[in-house]
């Protein structure tokens, strides 16, 4: 080394784990997108200084223990009912920030009813939707968002439309509802998309503050264990196979459908 | 607001909820209880109450979970099929220890059943109903007055024990009109602080987490043990019942809710005929007055349980009586309410018989010699007398 | 030399060795360790001093184990130090003499 850096305390810390994340090590598999989403969500809450005003709702699925890691008041919902629980909280505490954090099984299968109706009521909440096209916690079964041909433990020959129907593009469906104000599809596997995701989360909390109504951020994410790939392979596979079905970008901004939405 | 009103049971209950400081109602219409939602939609909002007709009973009970967790006094109401849908949520609410009120205006089942009154949900209400070891506190009103009064009591008990409370009424109580007097009640004075509520974590305290998930077996057992201790305390301190003539009777009729009113009339008729009959009316179905029955059993010759079902509370009565005297059952189903004369004739029938204690009810006479032939079930049922016990 | 200098501190005990940071690093400053941590994972380590403190690694890290530091942008002297190295010496084969007319303020390591 030709020139050493000055000691750390004379340097500027430009990124550190947000104080709104607890010190509990996350239980997620190596490379799982959940951790990034948790981290960014908590970073935004820290930056907006809304830790004392935010209540989160954890789902059933891999992120069932989200409240171990997020240093905010949280409620654990029954499978699929996070949007209803969030509604109950928000209606009692309309000036607080309320978000639900849900996976594809929770939000788009067992909880479809609650999800759609919360959106349609224009419930003033933020819903974070992790779509990794598989049921991670129960061991890699088909999700409603599993793409065609994708092998899971319950679609060993690959998902086919005759037996299992089509990948459920619930985000597109929600964007069509008048109650939905901001609907966007993001990812968290590269630095740039993480920056975009952070902007989206910040925007959604601002909308909630302004009482604009329902905001949905879908995060197309990976499941290295469920997909049986390394984290890097899974991200590549996601780009090649998931993004064509679930293209990234805003579907609805300021209550108006974007051009992307066809 | 005048304090004396002529109202339907459902409306009286709804009015009492407003006066009890209920801040949120989440429900889905179902006969015979829709007047609760309708009344609150009309009257509740002007008192600052959040009144929501939502997409399903599943959503309703989970909104109650969220809202109760946010520290608010909240409720939902439904009737039997809708209450079945809520069982999952109730199990979560019980484990997360969230106080709330759930009203079941019981209708006939199973299945879609009938919209007529029934007491067929006794098991579901008192034994937990959903998965896991838990109990609701269950109050059974018998009058429109109690439909109102028990709202305050149920909210107070729910808050006291951090436990869901249920008012188990039936379609008749919900629909019939009676005079009701709304008692003075100060919600602020009766509501405890809720430091466990998720209202946003200030820097001064640790975060509040409301969950029913405890993946470590030791932790889950500990949670269960805590719940059981709580239920023991409830059983010790909160048993409520009414006794009529029981201290001087050879025969005890046990009935709750609507059937207790009919049974009381039948008991009075029987006594005027010289029969030595008393009445026990459990008001709390959970906790159940087992000890009262045990104490009374020594002086009794037999017991008759009257319900609007195929015999559910009768099992708890047998547990209380502990085999000391025979326990008989008379019930009507499908939404039929028996007139007092029907019960009177059953009382007279039993009073003239010398019966011996039995652990189990006798098999219906015509069932005894039949093999399990499903085609014959209808024929057997047709030949049975109403007085035959199952 | 990059215009901005930085470094990272990695909580090696919490790192799960997913390699996303290694892939995200534009400077190839990171690699997996040969050793394993308490949990049995190879963990990310800084292998070069060419880190610019761009925070890419920290952004993609699912376990928030990376803390990123950067030389302060404020302070003229430091900028000079980082932007205009006084000397780069490599492959020294015989005795050389380096003289600097005026040392800039701040820390200079030769």
Assess the beta-strand content of chain B as a share of residues.
15-25%
SSE order of chain C? EHEEHEH
Strand order of the largest sheet of chain B: 3-2-4-5-7-6-13
> What share of residues of chain C is helical?
10-25%
* SS elements, strand count of chain C: 4
The structure class of chain C reads alpha+beta
Kindly report the greatest chain-chain contact and the residue count on each side. Answer: A-C, 40 and 40 residues
Low-confidence stretches of chain C: 75-85
DSSP strand count of chain B: 15
Mean pLDDT over the residues of chain C: 80
Biggest sheet record of chain B: 7 strands, mixed
Q: Alpha-carbon distance between the termini of chain C?
A: 15 Å
Assembly type of the shown chains?
heterotrimer
Mind explaining what this structure looks like?
- The complex is a heterotrimer of chains A (262), B (390) and C (110).
- With 262 residues, chain A is of the alpha/beta class.
- Chain A is built from 10 helices and 11 strands.
- In chain A, 36% of the residues lie in helices and 20% in strands.
- The N and C termini of chain A lie far apart (55 Å).
- Helix content of chain B is 41%, strand content 18%.
- By secondary structure, chain C is of the alpha+beta class.
- Chain C has a single domain (1-102), classed as Alpha-Beta Plaits, CATH 3.30.70.20.
- Chain C is globular, with a radius of gyration of 17 Å.
- The model of chain C is unreliable at 75-85 (pLDDT under 50).
- The chains are: A alpha/beta (262), B alpha/beta (390), C alpha+beta (110).
- At the A-C interface, strand 1, helix 1, helix 8 and helix 10 of A face strand 1, helix 1, helix 2 and strand 4 of C.
- Strand 1 of chain A pairs antiparallel with strand 4 (66-70) of chain C.
Strand-helix topology:
The complex is a heterotrimer of chains A (262), B (390) and C (110).
Chain A lengths: L11 E4 L17 H15 L6 E5 L7 H4 L3 E4 L5 H11 L4 E7 H7 L1 H9 L5 E6 L2 E2 L5 E2 L18 H4 L5 H6 L4 E8 L3 H19 L4 E7 L3 H4 L3 H15 L3 E5 L2 E2 L5
Parallel strand pairs in A: 2-3, 2-4, 4-5, 5-9, 8-9
Antiparallel strand pairs in A: 6-7, 8-10, 10-11
Chain B lengths: L3 E5 H11 L4 E4 L6 H10 L6 E4 L3 H13 L4 E5 L1 H17 L3 E7 L15 H5 L10 E3 L4 H18 L2 E7 H5 L1 E5 L5 H4 L18 E2 L6 H21 L3 E4 L6 E4 L2 H16 L4 E6 L1 E3 L3 H8 L4 E6 L5 H9 L5 E5 L8 H12 L22 H10 L7
Parallel strand pairs in B: 2-3, 2-4, 4-5, 5-7, 6-7, 11-12, 11-14, 14-15
Antiparallel strand pairs in B: 1-8, 6-13, 10-12
Chain C lengths: L5 E5 L9 H5 L5 E7 L5 E5 L9 H5 L5 E5 L5 H8 L27
């Amino acid at each position: 080394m030709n020139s050493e850096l000055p000691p750390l305390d004379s340097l500027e810390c430009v990124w550190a784990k947000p104080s709104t994340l607890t010190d509990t090590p996350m239980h997620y598999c190596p490379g799982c997108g959940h951790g990034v989403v948790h981290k960014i969500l908590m970073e935004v809450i820290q930056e907006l200084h809304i830790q004392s005003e935010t209540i989160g709702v954890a789902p059933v699925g891999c992120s069932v223990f989200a409240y171990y890691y997020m240093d905010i008041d949280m409620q654990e919902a029954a499978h699929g009912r996070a949007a209803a629980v969030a509604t109950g909280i928000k209606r009692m505490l309309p000036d607080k920030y309320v978000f639900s954090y849900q996976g594809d099984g929770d939000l788009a299968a067992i909880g479809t009813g609650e999800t759609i109706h919360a959106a349609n009521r224009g419930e003033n909440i933020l819903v974070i939707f992790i779509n990794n096209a598989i049921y991670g916690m129960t061991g890699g079964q088909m999700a409603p968002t599993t793409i065609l041909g994708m092998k899971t433990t319950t679609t060993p020959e690959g998902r086919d439309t005759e037996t299992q129907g089509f990948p459920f593009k619930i985000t597109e469906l929600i964007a069509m509802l008048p109650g939905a104000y901001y609907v966007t599809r993001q990812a968290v596997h590269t630095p740039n998309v993480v920056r975009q995701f952070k902007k989206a989360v910040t925007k959604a909390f601002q909308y909630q503050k302004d009482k604009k109504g329902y905001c949905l951020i879908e995060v197309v994410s990976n499941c290295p264990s469920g997909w049986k790939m390394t984290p890097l392979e899974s991200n590549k596979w996601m780009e090649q196979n998931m993004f064509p079905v679930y293209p990234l970008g805003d579907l609805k901004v300021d209550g108006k459908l974007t051009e992307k939405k066809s | 607001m005048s304090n004396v009103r002529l109202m339907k049971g459902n409306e009286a209950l709804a009015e009492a909820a407003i006066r009890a400081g209920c801040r949120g109602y989440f429900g889905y219409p179902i006969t015979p209880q829709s007047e609760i939602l309708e009344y609150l939609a009309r009257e509740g909002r002007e008192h600052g109450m959040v009144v929501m007709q939502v997409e399903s009973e599943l959503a309703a009970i989970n909104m109650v979970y969220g809202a109760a967790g946010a520290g608010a006094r909240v409720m939902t109401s439904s009737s039997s099929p809708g209450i079945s849908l809520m069982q999952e949520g109730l199990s979560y609410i019980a484990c997360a220890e969230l106080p709330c009120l759930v009203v079941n205006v019981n209708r006939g089942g199973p299945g879609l059943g009938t919209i007529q009154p029934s007491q067929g949900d006794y098991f579901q209400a008192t034994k937990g109903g959903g998965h896991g070891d838990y109990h609701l506190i269950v109050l059974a009103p018998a009058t429109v007055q109690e439909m109102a009064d028990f709202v305050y009591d149920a909210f107070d008990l729910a808050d006291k024990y951090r436990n869901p409370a249920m008012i188990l009424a039936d379609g008749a109580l919900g629909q019939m009109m009676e005079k009701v007097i709304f008692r003075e009640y100060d919600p602020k004075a009766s509501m405890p602080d809720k430091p466990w509520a998720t209202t946003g974590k200030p820097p001064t305290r640790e975060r509040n987490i409301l969950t029913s998930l405890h993946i470590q077996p030791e932790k889950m057992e500990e949670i269960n043990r805590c719940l059981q201790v709580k239920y023991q305390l409830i059983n010790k301190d909160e048993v409520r019942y009414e006794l009529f003539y029981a201290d001087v009777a050879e025969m005890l009729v046990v009935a709750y809710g609507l059937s207790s009113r009919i049974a009381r009339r039948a008991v009075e008729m029987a006594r005027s005929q010289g029969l030595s009959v008393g009445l026990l009316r459990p008001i709390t179905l959970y906790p159940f007055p087992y000890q009262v029955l045990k104490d009374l059993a020594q002086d009794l010759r037999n017991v008759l349980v009257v319900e609007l079902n195929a015999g559910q509370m009768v099992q708890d009565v047998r547990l209380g009586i502990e085999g000391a005297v025979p326990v008989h059952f008379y019930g009507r189903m499908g939404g039929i309410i028996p007139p007092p004369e029907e019960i009177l004739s059953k009382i007279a029938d039993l009073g003239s018989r010398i019966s011996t204690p039995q652990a189990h009810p006798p098999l219906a006479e015509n069932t005894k010699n039949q093999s399990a032939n499903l085609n014959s079930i209808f024929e057997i049922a047709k030949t049975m007398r109403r007085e035959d016990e199952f | 030399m990059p215009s901005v200098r930085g470094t990272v501190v990695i909580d090696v005990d919490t790192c799960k060795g997913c390699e996303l940071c290694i892939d995200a690093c534009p400077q190839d400053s990171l690699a997996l360790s040969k050793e394993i941590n308490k949990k049995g994972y190879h963990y990310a380590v800084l292998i070069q001093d060419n880190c610019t403190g761009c925070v890419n690694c920290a952004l993609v890290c699912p376990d928030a184990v990376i803390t990123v530091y950067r030389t302060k942008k404020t302070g003229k002297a430091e900028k000079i130090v980082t932007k205009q190295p006084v000397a780069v010496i490599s492959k020294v084969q015989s005795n050389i003499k380096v003289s600097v007319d005026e040392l800039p303020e701040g820390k200079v390591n030769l």
